[in-house]
Amino acid sequence: MEVKLEQPVAPVQAWGAGSGTGRSAKLKQRLPTFSYLEKAARSRIPGFAFDFVDGGTGEHLAAERNRRALDAVQIIPRYGASAVLNTEVQLFGRRYASPIGIAPVGVDGLVWPGATQLLAKAAHRARIPYITGTLASGSLEEVAELCPDSVWLQLYGLPRDRHRVTLDLIQRAEACGVHALVATLDAPVRAKRPKDLHNGLIVPFRMTPRTVWQVATSLPWAQALLKNGAPGFANIERYVSGGSSMAATAGFVQSEIKGTFDWETLARMRDAWPRALVVKGVLHPEDAERAISLGIDGILVSNHGGRQSEAAPPSIDMLPSIVRVVGERATVLFDSGIRSGLDVARAIALGAHGTFCGRAFLYGLAALGAEGPDRVAQLLDDELRTALAQHGAYTCAQLRNAAVRDPAAW
Ligand SMILES: Cc1cc2nc3c(=O)[nH]c(=O)nc-3n(C[C@H](O)[C@H](O)[C@H](O)COP(=O)(O)O)c2cc1C
């Protein structure tokens, strides 16, 4: 009788760590959490590439605050419920296996040559959304072929000629089945990232004896570079007059791309794009309200992972007030600082419908190459399942109703 009482009422599939055999089980043992992945990543790719991913703006304060604020969110567990664990979510009318997507990353090929294609394939296998970037190394058409059901496109502003290039990108996105457009608002100026400056990582990139040494001592990365070639900007090369050389494209990126949109341009985008439109980088509830008044479908609460304004608040602190303002009128998404499935659970408990991770997937690539993004998706999903069960919520919808102590909320 006692033995029966000690058994869980519902079978919980969350006990991933260490179970099973084969490659996946070995990885679970060797890299059981994100911090192990980060350590492996640091030792496996050139220092300038690691610093590029890791670096926040300024003295890294905003990135560190993201972490501290997430750590401070407490979820009060409830017990006694009986149900089958299910992490599926519906975003803009489409079902995804988990509320954990891949955030857009520009120049991703620097972190791991061939990154765009590898991230797209992993998103397809895991049935999660992948927001490919305007400045990704692979083209959106290629990505759409690799993950036809879950590709979203992030846009930066290209204002010249009344947004001719932006509108062309929108048409390309529609033609290849992109599910949602994500307009980034929070990079109106180029942020100062001291580590990149110190490493000479400026556009166009020039090799120095130090960077050559770093590449020569990072063999798997160098092999991936030989196989895939130097990272470019596949989405925009066609718009560059003067050929698609690296120097010409880099000059175009520097002079033409603006990392934000004004409300008028967003209203034009709303008219030009028939599917879901998301704004990324929202931190103020009144900006969320303004976006909704334009008919925008999704608000991605983000401080760019602490890479833009060093004085920006942690995005998790702003999430509850934005969720309150938005209500049921739009989908609220979250990123910045997620390093575990528990962090995903924290964001959902504070009202997010879905979350995105940038660095976590990049560290996966750096640590494990092609199989890295799969490992990260699995790790985060396993941890999310554990968090759901541990807090007595068996679905993400239930978790959104959880009681939370969030001492830092604005
Ligand atoms: C190396 C790197 C490049 C990024 N490039 C872009 C970009 O081109 N466009 C964009 O909207 N966000 C970009 N981001 C921000 C991410 O989309 C995301 O907001 C951020 O990484 C979330 O924080 P996290 O890394 O702590 O998960 C980039 C982030 C990193 C780490």
Helix content: 40-55%
Q: What is the topology, as strand order, of the major beta sheet?
A: 4-11-10-9-8-7-6-5
Radius of gyration: 21 Å
DSSP helix count?
A: 20
Query: Per CATH, which architecture?
Result: Alpha-Beta Barrel
Mean pLDDT: 92
Query: What's the count of strands?
Result: 12
- Structural class, judged by helices and strands? alpha/beta
Q: What is the CATH C level class, in words?
A: Alpha Beta
Describe it.
- There is one protein chain.
- This protein has one domain (29-196, 250-400): Aldolase class I (TIM Barrel).
- It has helices at 2-6, 22-30, 34-44, 47-54, 61-72, 108-111, 115-126, 140-146, 160-175, 194-198, 209-216, 219-228, 246-256, 263-272, 285-293, 315-326, 341-349, 359-368, 372-390, 396-399; strands spanning 74-76, 89-91, 94-96, 100-102, 130-132, 151-155, 180-184, 276-282, 298-301, 331-334, 354-357, 403-405.
- Strands 4-11-10-9-8-7-6-5 form an eight-stranded parallel beta sheet.
- 47% of the residues lie in helices and 11% in strands.
- The protein has 20 helices and twelve strands.
- With 410 residues, the chain is an alpha/beta fold.
- The longest helix is centred in the C-terminal third of the chain and has 19 residues, at 372-390.
- Flavin mononucleotide binds next to helix 4 and helix 18.
- It is an enzyme of class 1 (oxidoreductase).
